[in-house]
Amino acid sequence: MSTTSFRCAVLLACLWAGSASAQVPEDVPSPSDRVPFQPLMDDSRTSPPFRAVGEPLLEMEPLETDRDSFTPATSTVDQGWLIVESAYSFIDQRGSKDTHSFPEFIARYGLADWFELRFGASYEVGGAGNSISSGGGGPGRGEPGEIESESQLLYGFKIGLTQQDAWKPRSALILQGTSPTSGTEATSQFVGTYVLGWQFANGWMWDSAVRFATDEFEADRHSLWAPSTVLKVPVGERWNAHAEYFGIRSSGLVDPKSDHYFSPGVHYLLTNDLELGVRIGWGLNDDAANFFTNVGFGWRM
């Protein structure tokens, strides 16, 4: 056989083998019979995010900070992400100097989707402590005349406990401590907060919390309990409004005190990773401050 005839025979054999292997088996459905691809829809209240560390966040996951209200969020920071929060508070104290609190800084880093580390710092000046901020540490030491100025560090962690499932709420636990860095009346505190809540089909969110803190005033060791509840309502795609009640009650003080507040607020998402928020509030009894306002931001990176 000549070389040319041999090459033609090899070529014809290859073409026949390729056409045979390209035949579609009878048990493989045609494209028209296949089920179309359905993307996973992530509900942050019911399931962890389906993404690798560092991937862009989904559009349906807007930033939710702890500083939006006195009641912290039930969510934790996603693994590998950092949320930085900061705020300024003005408190019109009853019977003492006004209080200014800033920067109310807290950095939250996700070690896992259910576990975050927390570190922060703040400075207060005035006639009483900051009793109205979530990011300031404990429920606050609001005794008139207690401080001129003081600063503190905050450190701890937050654990996601449960995800929402029908009427089973999403919940989280925050355990943290504070250490004074200046101020003659400043003391260390242990603070524990349990928060739970639900998100409804219309986007409304109802969260409630109870906060416990150790404290000391004029060598009188005591504890503070702070229950709170907040209703958050979306207004359009970027705005969110809320109304909140919170209180602070002492236990173990010779002269016990009990504060009660009502506080509305709004926050606006500049992007899904950057928000601005404003809260105002009024004391509902004589132990509470007359009025307060709080403005701040949260940034996820």
Explain this structure.
The protein is mainly β and 301 residues long. It has one domain (82-300): Beta Barrel (Porin), CATH 2.40.160.40. The protein is 6% helix and 50% strand. A twelve-stranded antiparallel barrel has the order 1-2-3-4-5-6-7-8-9-10-11-12. Strand 9 and strand 10 form a beta hairpin. The longest helix has 19 residues, at 3-21. The radius of gyration is 28 Å and the shape is globular. The protein starts with a helix and ends with a strand. The model is unreliable at 2-8, 14-44 and 46-60 (pLDDT under 50).
Salient structural properties:
301 residues; mainly beta; 12-stranded antiparallel barrel; 1 helix; 12 strands; 6% helix
Second-tier CATH architecture: Beta Barrel
- Which CATH class applies here? Mainly Beta
Q: Provide the succession of SSEs.
A: HEEEEEEEEEEEE
**Unreliable spans:** 2-8, 14-44, 46-60
What spatial order of strands do you see in the largest sheet?
1-2-3-4-5-6-7-8-9-10-11-12
Number of structural domains: 1
Kindly state the number of beta strands.
12
Fold-level CATH name: Porin
Rounded to the nearest angstrom, the distance between the terminal CA atoms is 73 Å
User: What Rg do the Cα atoms give?
Assistant: 28 Å
Oligomer: single chain
Helical proportion, percent range:
under 10%
Output the CATH homologous superfamily.
monomeric porin ompg
Q: How would a textbook summarize the main sheet?
A: 12 strands, antiparallel, barrel
Sheet-strand content, in percent, reads over 45%
Shape: globular
Structural class: mainly beta
Mean pLDDT: 81
Q: What is the number of helices?
A: 1
